[in-house]
Amino acid sequence: MFSSITGSKNNTVFDDATYVPMEEEDKKFALEFLRGHSTAVLATASVTGEPQAAPMYFLVDDDFTFHFFTAKNSQKVKHIKQNKHVAIVVGFGPEITTVQVRGDAEFDDHIAPGLFWELVEKIKLGDIFQWPLAVLAKGGGYTAFRLKPRVMSLLKFEKGKDPRIYYNDF
Question: In the chain, helix, strand, coil percent, each to 5?
Answer without folding.
Answer: 25, 40, 35
